[in-house]
Design a protein that fits this description.
The complex is a heterotrimer of chains A (337), B (457) and C (234).
Chain A (H helix, E strand, L loop, with lengths): L1 H39 L6 H21 L10 H29 L4 H23 L12 E3 L1 H8 L7 E2 H23 L1 H11 L1 H6 L4 H26 L6 H16 L4 H19 L3 H7 L18 H15 L11
Antiparallel strand pairs in A: 1-2
Chain B lengths: L5 H21 L1 H28 L6 H16 L4 H31 L3 H32 L17 H21 L4 H21 L1 H4 L15 H6 L1 H10 L1 H5 L4 H44 L1 H11 L1 H6 L4 H27 L9 H15 L4 H29 L8 H8 L4 H16 L13
Chain C lengths: L2 E11 L2 E12 L3 E5 L6 H9 L4 E8 L2 E2 L5 H7 L1 E4 L11 H8 L8 H10 L1 H5 L10 H13 L5 E5 L7 H16 L3 E5 L3 H7 L2 E6 L2 E7 H6 L1 H7 L3
Parallel strand pairs in C: 3-8, 3-9, 6-7, 7-8
Antiparallel strand pairs in C: 1-2, 1-4, 4-5, 9-10
The chains are: A mainly alpha (337), B mainly alpha (457), C alpha/beta (234).
Chain lengths: 337, 457, 234
């Protein structure tokens, strides 16, 4: 019985909690990508950089607040700076739309051209980030780092295995729940949200119903800005902020959006968790788990690891390829907001 | 033979004068270094341009194909490490045979079992069992190989052939990978295809990074043999010394003191050997570039090229005309990737080292795409021009930025925080330039600087 | 009284004029049908009235007001409504949401209008929470119709409302159209099923090769031997 509990704690500590928090970050990112895809109808390669930009602004203001000795006690100061980061990210999105994307939308350019354009935006934002904050790894989490340390848990329960709970993980999951509920409430229940779904569903008919496309696009960028900034900041808070890592993050984010069914917000969220859990589960060494759960003679000698952690990143793409082959529209049918 | 339009001649003249300009301002050595990379970039760009410009098939896997070319350079030229083969060769052989058996088993089951659900189940079980067995042999073998003198070797080595063969082999390697990718992914919508190829290229690179028995992974392979002479050999070769003496005879005759003269001659020989090596590379690369350019143009003007354009411009109609669009897309995707692979092998040849962790999408996929778009997709000369101009801008962005920042902050103290920060950030401005160039071209000259010629077919 | 008049309309796509010098008029409370052979420019004429393509020459007037250069959305706001032939519902949204979107521009409470639509098409009330993409062709047509009615239009334009539905459903739809007319709405529709359409029409226009060929009351056209011969099937 104790062994069983220990094995459960192992799973919880090394798979479920990290998976939930990484999955939440991916889900928020993928939701942003899916919004752009559903409303503006292109694959936005700049999304990773937008996330990075939001995180950067949040960090800059975190530093400012820290220097002024303004803080939130046990919570990281970044939470206080987050709203400013969000506003800045929204402004970035709207500026890039006004100066870049809008033109191609009015030209009715094909999606591939818009994707190329987004690569241009990606380069520019990437450069701005590098110029402002450099390329060094930055740790900006402060406040109480752990809600529960492994040692405390062991003392508390008397189990062999510890369960660590980082505050960044709890904050990630908590914020994600709030944002996702708000987004889905907005899409399902408000008139504006419904009009966005209508626009995504059938643009011509939406125009015939008097839905103002400029307003829909504007609100889309606002939502994308919020989601991207929060996702980027949470990722940085959880792992540590490295400006150039976001270019690599854009791939699992895309994978999540496509696996779930691109253009489908619910799918994007599910896709995020699917990708996160598969990355972690496939590259986790289950030895410890099996040592607890199996009787002595059956205990494994190796690590019981399907793939080395080196390939963590490749997992998301393998899943993406498999999904595209078996069910090209994604788990949930894509292309409807 | 193709005739150039006037603006195309102007483009060629601009490219040549850029190098002469740099030669006079920053020295011929710098100019040749840039030129060599420009030529390699141009070959990559032609590869992408063939699939995208001719047929509209998007290939965001450039980085992966370059890395395959690089791997070819290592495998062809590095001397074999017999010890590694002895300890691990058998194990690898067995795993390879088992893998082949697994593939055949899956194919057989696909043929025999018709019921879809049971097919999936049987296949999954066989694949999982197969992988467990293969892993046993494979991990033992690779661990043994990686234990062989890890500081210097730790991998299988190569064939020990002249590296120049690898240019061809690199093309084949890339083509092989492209064939698999194409089989899997072509037929997807172009933006999905872009993401999938980008992702698979990441997988290719991460395999090269982590399979140390094959490529030494992040430990890098250094000291690859050159196809051209080494500077040190040149400096001691009589014919080269005579050549330098002859070329600079007037300069040398002006120096009266015999010691000074020897000193000057030595300097000239050292400089000259560097330039000679780079020039040899440039000539080799130029030959490859011109060959590819010739055939690329010939292909574009052929009935096959016409068919590709027809497919690109109207896939539905081409489909209706009985053209097998997916097959043609596969062919052109493979050809384009092969050319990129050639460039990848040349790149490693030029560097003399293979660093898998150096393959990053920003530098090796997106910049190449900027070259294609800026140059003009569908026009081979445009592709070359794009490769030259963008690489040139990429390199010269830093000195230009330094100059601009210094001009703008002329009034500020040298210790001014803003000025220091900006000057520290100079290397990052090249990304800004790249993005702006791409955005401006897409906005104001969407068909590129040298657009595709309108052909009436 | 509200009416929509197209005067000397010439328009087309990509520089090629499909309709030439066409005159059309529809008044409140009447059903007007445009009939004609395939490629005669019937749908084009309707789209020109709505502003979905720009006019080469001619003008559109609504209640004595020139609206030729107005955006389609703004014309919707004035009291025009349009039901396209295809892709005329939001497939991913429920029936009720489709109706709500139809009333997007309305500031007042739209629940009464929704109930009016449900009274008109009782089946939609049953399926109100089902997504429109899952409905049958005829039911979708009703959703599309209902969505257009949500703006309480004065003039309603229907582009082949009965395309691809069974004859029974077609009769049902026509009877609904008559009911809508009773509420004072003017209806302009393009129809392939010319015979049935003309039989419920107050007036009709015959277009041939992008030009007005004939017009008159529905009965007149139905009984006209030339019209019968050319495309009413004798």
């Amino acid at each position: 019985m104790i062994d069983f509990l220990n094995s459960l704690v192992v799973l919880l500590n090394f798979i479920i909690i990290p998976g939930l928090s990484y999955g939440s970050q991916l889900a928020l990112g993928a939701l942003g990508v899916t919004f752009v895809y559903a409303i503006l109808r292109f694959a936005n390669f700049a999304h990773g950089e937008i996330m990075s930009f939001g995180a950067m602004i949040t960090i800059l203001f975190t530093w400012f607040f820290q220097s002024q000795n303004i803080g939130l006690g046990i919570f990281p100061t970044a939470l206080l700076a987050l709203p400013i980061g969000i506003i800045a990210t929204i402004i970035l999105c709207i500026i890039s739309d006004k100066f870049v994307f809008q033109y191609y939308r009015h030209q009715k350019s094909v999606p591939v051209v818009l994707a190329m354009v987004s690569i241009g935006v990606m380069f520019v934002v990437n450069a701005i980030i590098r110029i402002i904050i450099g390329t060094e790894t930055i740790k900006f989490s402060d406040g109480q780092k752990f809600i529960m340390k492994a040692k405390q848990f062991k003392l508390m329960t008397g189990l062999n295995e510890g369960l660590a709970l980082k505050s960044s993980q709890v904050i990630t999951i908590f914020l994600t729940i709030i944002l996702l509920s708000f987004t889905f409430w907005f899409l399902q229940k408000t008139k504006t949200g419904k009009s966005m779904r209508a626009f995504s569903d059938n643009e011509d008919l939406a125009l015939l119903s008097g839905i103002n496309p400029d307003r829909v696009v504007f609100i889309t960028w606002m939502i994308v800005g919020v989601l991207a900034c929060v996702a980027g900041t949470l990722y940085g808070l959880d792992k540590s902020y490295k400006p150039i890592i976001y270019l690599n993050l854009v791939l699992p984010v895309f994978a999540s959006a496509i696996v779930g069914g691109i253009g489908n917000p619910f799918g994007a969220v599910v896709g995020g968790y699917v990708i996160a859990f598969s990355e972690i589960m496939i590259t986790y060494a289950y030895k410890k788990f099996f040592v607890y759960i199996l009787p002595g003679p059956l205990e494994p000698s190796g690590l019981v690891q399907l793939l080395s952690t080196d390939y963590k990143f490749a997992v998301s793409f393998t899943i993406l390829v498999i999904v595209l082959l078996i069910r090209p529209s994604g788990i949930f049918k894509g292309r409807v907001l | 033979m193709m005739k150039f339009e006037r603006y195309e001649w102007i483009a060629i003249a601009i490219m040549i004068s850029l190098f002469i300009f740099v030669g006079f301002i920053q020295g011929w050595s710098v100019s040749l270094v840039i030129l060599n990379m420009c030529i390699i970039s141009a070959i990559m760009t032609m590869g992408v341009n063939i699939s995208w410009g001719y047929a509209g098939v998007i290939n965001f896997g450039v980085m992966g194909f370059l890395a395959m070319g690089g791997l070819a350079a290592v495998i062809v030229s590095y001397p074999p490490i017999r010890e590694a083969w002895q300890v691990g060769g058998t194990g690898l052989g067995i795993s390879l045979i088992l893998l082949a058996m697994l593939v055949f088993a899956v194919m057989y089951i696909n043929k025999v079992v018709t019921k879809k659900s049971s097919k999936y189940w049987i296949n999954s079980i066989i694949i999982i069992l197969g992988i467990i067995i293969i892993r046993h042999f494979y991990l033992n073998a690779t661990a043994n190989i990686e234990d062989v003198n890890p500081a210097l070797a730790g991998f299988l080595g190569g064939l020990g052939l002249p590296i120049i063969f690898s240019w061809f082999v690199g093309g084949l390697f890339a083509a092989g990978v492209a064939f698999v990718i194409g089989k899997v992914a072509l037929g997807l919508r172009s933006d999905y295809l872009a993401i999938v190829t980008l992702g698979i290229s990441e997988i290719v690179v991460s395999v090269l990074k982590h399979e140390e028995w094959l490529s030494r992974g992040v430990k890098n392979v250094i000291g690859l043999k050159r196809p051209v002479p080494y500077e040190i050999d040149l400096q001691n070769a009589d014919w080269f010394i005579n050549l330098v003496t002859y070329l600079n005879s007037s300069k040398l005759n002006n120096v009266i003191d015999i010691n000074d003269r020897q000193q000057l001659l030595n300097n000239l020989i050292i400089d000259g050997s560097g330039i000679f090596v780079k020039l040899s590379y440039a000539i080799l690369f130029l030959i490859v570039m011109l060959i590819i350019f010739y055939f690329a143009n010939k292909a574009q003007l052929s009935p096959w090229g016409r068919m590709m354009r027809a497919i690109r411009d109207n896939e539905t109609a081409a489909n209706a005309m009985g053209k097998d669009v997916v097959k043609q897309h596969l062919i052109i995707f493979v050809i384009g990737a092969a050319i990129v692979g050639v460039a990848g092998a040349m790149l490693v040849t030029l560097d003399g080292l293979f660093t898998p962790s150096g393959y990053r999408p920003l530098r090796f996929t997106f910049i190449i795409w900027i070259m294609v778009i800026v140059g003009g997709s569908g026009n081979n000369l445009g592709a070359i021009f794009g490769g030259f101009v963008i690489w040139f801008a990429w390199i010269e962005a830093a000195p230009l930025t330094t100059f601009i920042i210094n001009q703008l902050t002329l009034g500020l103290e040298p210790t001014n925080a803003l000025k220091v920060h900006l000057l520290d950030s100079v290397p990052y401005f090249r990304y800004l330039f790249m993005g702006l160039i791409l955005l401006l071209i897409l906005r104001y000259r969407p068909k590129g600087i040298i657009p595709e010629r309108v052909r009436h077919s | 009284m509200n009416n929509l008049i197209g005067k000397n309309l010439t328009a087309g796509y990509g520089g090629v004029d499909i309709i030439k010098d066409i005159n059309l008029e529809v008044n409140e409370g009447e059903i007007v049908v445009i009939v004609g052979p395939n490629g005669a420019g019937k749908s084009t004429a309707m789209k020109a009235l709505l502003g979905m393509l720009s006019l080469t020459s001619g003008s559109v007037e609504y209640s004595n007001k020139e609206i030729s250069s107005m955006l389609p959305q703004n014309r919707i706001n004035l009291g025009l409504a349009f039901v396209p032939q295809t892709n005329n519902v939001f497939t991913g949204m429920t029936v009720e949401e489709n109706l709500e979107m139809g009333g997007f521009l309305r500031e007042d409470d739209i629940i009464h209008t929704i109930n009016d639509v449900y009274d008109l098409f009782p089946i939609l009330k049953q399926k109100r929470n089902q997504s429109a993409g899952e409905l049958s062709g005829g039911q979708r047509q009703q959703v599309a119709f209902g969505r257009a009615l949500m703006t309480k239009p004065k003039i309603l334009m229907l582009d082949e409302p009965t395309a691809g539905v069974s004859p029974i459903v077609m009769d049902e739809l026509f009877s609904r159209i008559i009911e809508v007319r009773k509420t004072g709405v003017g209806i302009l529709m393009v129809e392939q099923n010319a015979k049935q359409a003309l039989s419920i029409a107050d007036r009709g226009y015959v277009l041939v090769n992008g030009k007005n060929s004939r017009d008159g009351s529905g009965e007149e056209l139905l009984n006209n031997p030339a019209v019968r011969k050319s495309f009413l099937g004798g």
